[in-house]
Write a structure and sequence with these properties.
single chain, about 450 residues, 3 domains, 4-stranded parallel beta sheet, 27 strands, globular
Amino acid sequence: MTDKLHRIVIVGGGAGGLELATRLGKKLGRKKRADITLIDRTMTHLWKPLLHEVAAGSLNSYEDELSYMAHSHWNHFRFRLGELDRVDRVNRTITTLPTKDEHGEIYIPERTFHYDTLVIAIGSETNDFGIPGVKEHCHFLDQRQQADHFHQFFLKKAYEVHAQQGPLREGQLKIAIAGAGATGIELAAELHDSLGQMVEYGFDGINIKDDLKISIIEAADKILPALPDRLTNRTMSLLGNLGIEVLLGERIVEATTEGFKTESGKFIPSEIKVWAAGIKAPDCLARIEGLETNRINQLLVHRTLQTTRDENIFAFGDCAACPLDDSDNTVPPRAQAAHQQASMLYKTITRRLKGQSLPEYTYVDYGSLINLSRYSTVGSLMGNLSGKFSSNIFIEGIVARFVYLSLYKMHQLAVHGMVRFSLTTIGSFFTRRMKPRMKLH
């Protein structure tokens, strides 16, 4: 090994990127075997599958957030604030955009970082498909800040109704969610629960039966189209029990201040609109010269997770299109895939530094879980947990809820380690019982 440390730059501090940086920091950074830098556009980390709970107010983002700077100090890597702008593959550098405050003032200029191994894990963002009015009139839940912003908007709408003397406008307290994937469905259930709690806490003027209506609009002919029929049918039944309307086969063609217009001519009145109807990788990836991307900007990678045209650049998670098998199918953009890939890349990079051969990634589907707030949790665990790849096990209720919660605990354990994880869990257990279930400010 030369005197110069191998420079590993990880762009993106989501679940996968943070787990990878943490493990490499403990393994290589602590022993000064590599120089590891994590770059993210935000100062704090929050597990993305929790954003719908932040939006509804059932989770306080300030209590569950993780400081990248403090975490990097504890785990022997460096954190730098910035958003990916461009990659110079010849000189092996990346450049970040200037960082601005809420007033548009630059407080961190454009910066350049050198790498020997680059890992891109910047996730995905909502795809508005260029539909008129979506960007202007809909809320998105790609980032913690967006979830916080929606929560404040939602509260203002509720307080407005609470203080209003006259009748409500047609769509004033109606919520329309575009997309019947896990995010849209789980958000609908959380918002239903939140409005019920508002009534309990004394929000006069909110009539759950007459004024509130939550609608989910889906272009496909079923919800959760990639999941087993038994799971989707049970979820549809539970949504129906809550009075949540599901409109299938309805393609949205325009969003306005007052609601959504569909291709069939329907108009769904709603002043509270959320767009969760598809994803794409960030546009900056399509601008990296020489690298291959697909139609939704994902970087094409081999099963080693190396990009197809540069062995020094790896990509994983939602921003990468990794072959699933011998067909044209790719690994689905799911949290469990990012976790698996982060674990493999930890081994890959340590082997790469030793000049050894690299492993190939094989996706293992452990199943799917849909959490409908406090009402129920349903899921399908794949049979490969017991060695039977052709079957799956349907679970519901307390067991499903336990498995769902354990996924977040596994992420916390991977990031914090056993001691800090245990202390955090115990502290959360006591503090949350001293506060209302919903964040009302």
